# Entry
Amino acid sequence: MRSFSLLSERSALLVPFAGDGDGNGNRGNGNRGRAAARLCVDTESKHVYAALVSADQPTATIFRIGETLSGGLDVAEVLGLPDSNGFMTSDLDDAAVAGIQFVADSQALCVAMHSGDIVLVHLDGPEGAAPHIENVGVIDGGIRAMEWSPDSELVLFVTGNGTILEMTKDFDVICEVPIDVDAQGEAVPVSIGWGKKETQFHGTEGKLAAKQSNQPQVDKTYLSPEDDHVPRLSWRGDGNYFVCSTVDAAQGQRKLRIYNRESVLQSTSEFVAELEHPLSWRPSGNLIASTQRHGQLKREVVFFEKNGLRHGQFALANPDDIVLDMQWNADSTALALLVSRPASDSHQPNPALIQIWTANNYHWYLKQEIRAEAGSTGYNCMLWDPEAPHRLHALLNDGEYRRFDYIPEVYTSSSLSASSSAVVAVIDGAKLLLTPFRHKNVPPPMSFASIALPAPAKFVAFAPSSAASVNAAAILLADGTVHFWDKIDQPSAAVQHLGHLVLPAGASPRQIAWTDADTVLVLQHDAVAGTDVVKAYTFDRSASPFAITKTAEISHAERRVFFIRIYHNVASGIVALQTAGGKIFQVSQHDGEWYSIQKQTLPAVCPWMASVELGPTLDTKEVAWIGLSERNKLFVNDRTLSNQCTSFTTHDEFLILTTLSHTARFLPLSLPSHEFLIAEPTAPAAGFDEQHRRVERGSQIVVAVPAGVTLVLQMPRGNLETISPRALVLSTVRHAIDRLNYRTAFIACRKHRIDMNLLVDHDPDRFREHVADFVKQIDDPDYLNLIISSLRNEDVTKTMYPVKAVSSTRDVSNKVNDICTLMATVLDKLDAERYIQSILTSDARRLPPDLEGAMRRIYAVKEKQSPEAAESALKYLIFLADVNKLYDVALGMYDFALVLMVAQHSQKDPRDYLPFLSELQKLPKYYQRHRIDDHLGRRESALRNLSLAGEDRFDETVRYMRRHQLYATGMTLYGEETTQHRTILVEFAAFHASNSAYDEAGMLYTLAGELPLALEMYTNAGLWRQAYTVALDMGASDAEIRGVAESLLELLTENRDFLNAAHVCLEMLADPTRAVTALVAGHHWADAILVCTRSRLPDLRATVVKPSAITVGRHLLDEITEMGGTYTSQRHRLRQVRLEKTQRAADAAAGVPDSRLDDIDMFSDTASMATTRVTGSMVTSRASMSTTKTGRTSKQRRKYARRRAAGKEAAFEDEFLLTSLAKLVTRSNTIQTELQHLLPVLAGFGDTRLVRDLQRLFRATLGTLADGLDEIFVKEPAGGDGAAAAAGATPAATASATAGDDGGDVDAPTHAPVVVPRPVMITTTKWWMDSF
# Structure
């Protein structure tokens, strides 16, 4: 789908013209008789050398063409080769140049003359000095052709004696072989009798074609009359083979002979009648091109394989054209033909022109036809640049040099209008192929429509937005006319020709831009001024041809400038020019005057360019210039966007590009300029990346349909692939939702498999507001069912299709139920009968499904409409839900007719459900419902229905309640004053008593009036206040109360609840002595002193409270002392253990053997050990462990756990130490509370020395504990194992943990981290006394 666009044209005059012209600036026709010229290129300096032989005198002149800093061409005459040197003759044929080549190694021009002379012109001398001419030698018989190998190591000569002479680059002869030989070559195909012509199918030619012989007749000449009888040479691109085309005088035909690098004949071409002299071997090596004449009917370019067999052909557009020369370009993508075309005037010489052909999908396209100006005899020779594959050098017969630079380009409109059909135009000579990709995808070489043109097309521009239709085009032809066509998106017969415009003579237009309905801008080359000019032509469309009413040249700051591109953005109306230096000038018009202003300078020359508007809003949008260089660099303004871009295009919302890594990237144009970057593709776990897509290797963009979702790619082999990238589809869906065009959004989601949740999640508030419009637009119940069934409690704008914009956090935990309820309500209002399936889908899609509601709707349909409608709805519901669940739901509705309807559409056997239903129908109403609920597992409902079945079923109700433990439900079934309610309370209380919930049981027994049982329960619960109250309510005697009190004291003392035990002694027994004893046992010192004082028992203070307080104080003093010592010793030991493990790990990393293994002598010399002295640890594979371990009994595991907890396992010593130290810190918090209550009592008893000792020692101990916390409980470094973070687990500790709980080997290390939480040390409790 790509055509060739002419980027730049340069020209330079090598010799003066014979005449001064016609006085109007037109050149004369002097030097028309010039002989064939030759061209070569110095790839290092980029200089072009041209050798011309004068027609007036036998001299050859060599010119050098170079490029100036301003971009123009500089011509210098290197030297002339006079006849006085002894190697030039007076015969013009002998004086002609047979070949010229620049030899980089010697920095010299090798010139071969027809006379046989080989001349080296050395150009490496001082600047300004005359070149040194070296006469290498003379070949007897003359030189007919010369060709250097691609690596410049070998040179071939075809001599006048009919031989091929091969030399080295130093002109040492390698070999000389005759050309006309009978041998076919070493690699000639051998026929073994298969595939004979007589057995092949010949189509419409019939069987006669099989009888025709392909061998030449002896008495007939098969030489073309246009053959120049000159031999040709051509190397393959790798330099391993070359081909020679000569006329075999004996057989009267031209043959191709293929030789290897040593000039050994490999194969000879098969017989081809009227094969002509042009010859070129494709650099890629697969084809050898030549031409064949078919009488006066046609002339074809034919191809041969390396073995000499034919391999395809294509016919020239004009059968009268004569091919003088042909050449492949450097990358084998284009074939240039030098063609002589008969002049309209028989008295004038035939003008020669150049055609450029390309192939795609096995079809050859004529992409460009280069014609000389009127009156010129045309081109003399041409040469593709050896390094720049799309640069063509050419010489005219009048001595003018021209250089053409082309690029492959897709011709399509830059309009972003929805009415644009995305037409792509392909040039094929005098035919323009058109395909509107919005409507059709026709693969090349076919097309949807075509336009027949009077001359080959040169450039295509598309209609501006101000034109009547954006589906129109202006076509620049090779004859200098511009033709305008409308309705190019229609079939060929409907395409409308609007007219044509004849551009002024003398110009060389190469690109155009249709900027207004009656204005066209033309980029052309002025050969006289040696610069490029851009002119605006305003024309009258009513004339035929269109009449130019105004011509204006666009002014610019630079006097001499060379442009490579004229760009017109149809969408924005921007017209821009790009210079050969990468500068971008925007063209504007004011008061009829055209001018250009520089807007940007790209970092490199970009043959492909575009303009886009970047920014999130209309107010913040700014124009950005996009450029793609020939080195795959994509630029945005002056910065590089990508270094591996192969093609790009613009879309409404995106800049789309393909890369060398075979991906398509989609960059949103809504981003500001500084954020317009290519981000790395997100990982799969991070969600779907809609801006990144894999494409086939070598894919390039053809067109992105404006306001559409399709992107057309062309594969390297030429076929097309239309894809719908997620980025374009999602953009279309989002915009459609924003416009409340839900149907368009739904169709796009359904067609391209986009999650339907996006219809809701994109703008949920507006969706809820316009849900009625949503239903009306979708309309089809099947579509609504699809949408509802796709709902999930998920926000896909954050998970599947995230957007850059920050969105508020929404709760979607109940989204499905909300939307289903809303949809069902709206559908019920619009047309419940038509949308019954969608309503049922809403009920079934709820979480959990509201199947009962759905069944009620079906029942309503049966009542209001007809049983047939209900049956149809039921069949649909069965499709949505499990029929067994529907059966249970219908049964739970107690509607046997509905149950039978569901059962009939299920796979149930009537023998299974009919007896059951028959039995149920015989039962009373509530007992029937009880049986149904019990069958369905609805226990609470079954209990309620059983309670309503009658008083005679109360015992069954109690048993059912007891069996299913439905006591809470049972308490609500009967009135509070009824006997049944009290019975249920007693049952519930007994249930609590069996579960040791004595407090609850006592409360229920109290409510039921069972006070003895309540007293027992409260006593068992230790609730002395409730028990005392119940005992008093019962009128218990003192002895009974004392017995209850003794039971409570025993229980409270056992539970160490000394405070409540003291209350029992005081309140129920009136025994303060026992109360003081209980308070002292619980360390409630202040309460004990208060009881002694209030009871007038001072002796108890001296005999009970004081000695106990002093004893506890001294015990705490000893404990604190021991705590400090233990903490310090274990801290030091933990430090030592850590150092040892760290040292062992370092030794293992360094490869130091573990000394603990040196004394092991329990294995034989040949035993295999599962240890390694490299790592210093036992290495046992988990696979072998799982298969060889015998396991450990539960007793052994418990024993191992006890040893580990006691610190007797060396591998876990650090864990034991950490646990022990953490317990000490926790104990210090408890001691603070004890001292807070003990110290004031000791001070009150006058033991101030003990108070001071406790405060001093405990304060020091707390300081010791606090100082060691950070060292002992090491925080996990960032990026560590994490499980032991800040938990006191060291790297050594985390490397060893429990192993053996699963029955594995005790010594097998595991990497499970040791988790010892860092204890919290309380520092806010004021436990000390400031007075001491």
About this structure: The two ends are 100 Å apart (CA to CA).
